[in-house]
Design a protein that fits this description.
By secondary structure, this protein is an alpha+beta fold. The chain has helices spanning 2-7, 56-63, 76-82, 107-119, 125-144, 151-159, 173-178, 181-191, 207-218, 267-280, 286-294, 326-342, 347-364, 368-382, 387-396, 400-410; strands at 15-18, 24-29, 35-42, 86-91, 96-103, 197-203, 241-247, 254-262, 298-307, 311-320, 416-423. It is globular, with a radius of gyration of 23 Å. Pfam families: Peptidase_M16, Peptidase_M16_C. InterPro entries: Metalloenz_LuxS/M16, Pept_M16_N, Peptidase_M16, Peptidase_M16_C.
Length: 428
């Protein structure tokens, strides 16, 4: 079944080169639809912040839509929409990504706008004050008032002690309030430089013409100082850690067992992705069948490998049904992890996993937006653009023995944090 599917997974052709100022460029031509994406990923995320000024990277995702020397304040979105386009941006602990989707005859407009963001941003107090309110509202909506919205932040601060992954990507509002305009301008000068960025243009393009435009708009931008990182390493976890957090927005408690795991560049991280799918990928998965269907002990259960550039977090999450205790849920999940560590998973389950990952691989390159994002990510964070075509080979080469060995290496009780995430009572 999947042989035919993979044959239909078209190889993603791309061309890459560097401008003299150090900006990396990746072009992907696909003339099947009259659409183009202009996107820039900057190698700056929450981990690059001063611990006393968290939230800067995400703040910039908003701030750099304020306006430039040639784009009037507040007009960015009007220009995009009036030309039939859409745009967005997002931030992680490791990078910040901006993109526009336009009809292909507006590719030059997209390139000009992104070059303006890089070369001529206006960072002034009115923009900082405006976006401060926007970010506060976003935090209220997505974190403070969202059920279970703070779980990841609570895990991070209790599993990382030295590395800057320990704080939330959205950061501290107190830190943003305390920051001076000069600090925002210095952050921009340090990280928003061409040699800390990759430009991806994907879709219905004429490559020769686009190269000329790129040279005209991005070529004159001066190279910045090299961004260097020397981030602290964590000491291994050697005994079970426990933490409790309270959420006023929930009625049902949650329990999460979290393990510190390697970077997504490591082969072991790919194996952990497969273990996640085995444990909780769909209704036929081990944990769902056992805890939700058969024993009716959990409302929901999930195993997930949240992997990033420097470290990952492997999390086992469950919501109890009725009076089932959090300790019982942990014990039941532990039992299934122990089985993986003790016995090889069945050939049938292993084949099912392989099929799932083949299917995911095909789907990941099914949209031009997905391809553009993958090209930027694989270049910047993995150091290998060709993973867009051959990452599936890593999964194909994983064995049942690898799954057993990686579970034994990382998923042990003495290597984890148990977080009880509880409803907040009136007296707390």
């Amino acid at each position: 079944m999947f042989v035919g599917l993979i044959a239909n997974a078209q190889k993603v052709e791309f061309e890459e080169y560097d401008l003299d100022n150090g900006m990396h460029v990746i072009l992907h031509q696909d003339n099947t639809a009259p659409v183009v994406i202009t996107s820039v990923m900057y190698h700056v995320g929450a981990k690059d912040e001063n611990p006393e000024r968290t939230g800067f990277a995400h703040f910039f995702e908003h701030l750099l839509f304020e306006g430039t020397q040639n784009i009037e304040r507040g007009k960015w979105f009007d220009i995009v929409s009036s030309n039939g386009g859409s745009n967005n941006a997002n931030t992680t602990d490791d990078r910040t990504y901006y993109y526009e989707v336009f009809p292909s005859n507006s590719v030059e407009l997209g390139l000009w706008m992104e070059s303006e963001r890089l070369m001529h941003p206006i960072i002034n107090q009115i923009g900082v004050d405006t976006q401060n309110e926007v970010v506060k509202e976003e935090k209220r909506l997505r974190v403070d008032n969202s059920p279970y919205g703070n779980i990841l932040a609570e895990i991070k601060k209790n599993i990382f002690f030295k590395h800057p992954y320990r704080w939330a990507t959205i950061g501290s509002m107190d830190h943003l309030d305390a920051a001076t305009l000069e600090e925002f301008q210095a952050f921009n000068k340090k990280f928003y430089v061409p040699n800390n960025a990759v430009l991806v243009v994907a879709g219905d393009i004429n490559k020769a013409e686009v190269k000329k435009m790129i040279k005209a708009y991005f070529g004159p931008i001066p190279r910045g100082a090299e961004v260097t990182r020397d981030l602290p390493r964590e000491t291994p976890i050697t005994e079970t850690m426990k933490a409790t957090a309270y959420d006023p927005n929930i009625q049902i408690p949650a329990v999460i067992a979290s393990y510190r795991t390697p970077s997504y560049k490591e082969r072991d991280s790919y194996v952990l992705n497969m273990i996640s799918s085995y444990l909780s990928g769909g209704k036929s998965s081990v944990l769902y069948k056992k805890l939700v269907d058969e024993q009716k002990q959990a409302l929901a259960v999930q195993a997930v490998n949240i992997s990033q550039e420097d470290y990952g977090i492997y999390a086992l999450f469950a919501l109890p049904l009725g009076d089932v205790s959090l300790e019982t849920l942990i014990a039941e999940m532990d039992e299934e992890v122990a089985k993986i560590q003790t016995d090889l998973i069945s050939e049938k389950d292993f084949q099912k996993l392989q099929n799932q990952f083949e299917s995911q691989f095909v789907n990941s390159n099914s949209s031009i937006e997905g391809i553009a994002g993958s090209l930027a990510t694989y270049y910047m964070l993995y150091g290998d653009v060709n993973l867009i075509n051959n990452e599936i080979d890593i999964y194909r080469n994983i064995t049942r023995e690898d799954i057993q060995a990686v579970a034994k290496k990382y998923l042990n009780p003495n290597q984890r944090l148990i977080l009880d995430y509880l409803p907040k009572k009136d007296d707390q």
